[in-house]
Amino acid sequence: MKMRILFFMLFIIMTTMVLPQNKPEEKLEAVTYVDLARYIGTWYEIARLPNGFQEKCVSDVTAYYTLLDDGQITVVNRCRCEDGSFTEAEGRARKARTDGPNTKLEVRFAPAFLSFLPFVWGKYWIIGLADDYSYAVVGEPNREYLWILGRSPKLDEELFNEIIGRIKIKGYDVSKLIRTKHTQ
Q: How far apart are CA 124 and CA 127, in angstroms?
């Protein structure tokens, strides 16, 4: 009987999470192409919009991407917590649509056995990218999530301000950006 109740509750939760949201997506342009072989590797978070899954992160936020043989990407996000310890989350990224651009990805940090559920995949769109791959800007159409990433822990301030200007034009609230501290 307990299993039936648990199954029913899980079904209700999953059903409500898959229902369409009322918030319409506004048009957001992603870059047209990314050379994934150049994109993989270590990225340092320069700034981000606040989000619930990074509340523990106080500094030293990095993302490490590895390209897999099947075209998907292993994602390892790491950050320093207030007590000085590090926390990591490992996930997987894939093209959002098999016939779509490789700059519109989906990422999940849920276990692989849940990957058939659409709500475990979050949108990861590359909306800005330096020609030399020294920085990237990642967001999603609802403008709730945004990350500015760099190949080194610091970006030139003038360049950072230029990026902020471009992000603002795309409809993001840049006043909420959190600058990431790096101690190393």
A: 9
